[in-house]
Amino acid sequence: MAMKTLEDAFYDELRDVLSAEKQLTKALSKMAKKASSQELKKAFQDHLQQTEKQVERVEKAFEDTGKSARAKKCEAMAGLLEEAEDLMSHDADPEVMDALLIAAAQKVEHYEIATYGTLCTWAELLGYRTAKSELGQNLDEEETTDKNLTQLSKKINTAANA
User: In the predicted model, what is the mean pLDDT of residues 14-31?
Assistant: First the structure.
């Protein structure tokens, strides 16, 4: 795809984030199963439900472009989730595994925050009001999830260090 305009870049990034969110829906259930902390399990399960809604919002954002909601493989998310899979394969104490899971999850959240921040800026510049609103909701949720994981990590990291 030729990237001649910001609109081209916006559409390409929307395709990328749609893929990222779909990949994440598959990974979150695995991460929830691997977690030993009930709070962490619940956080992953809650985020899975949230991510499913985020996919719907991204699909709504496509409506502003007049183009179809077609995903393009997000290599960044694939790499982050491959790293998470590798971490989950380690023979680790349950508390240490939980700390590893949070680290992997926060890397994903930071990637998503950066992506949604960029997309919101571009949507505003391009006059895509629906997209700005829908993607802005996703950005807010990603930031909240990151903060919640940070709070949870304080207890989990302390337990892993015991």
Answer: 97
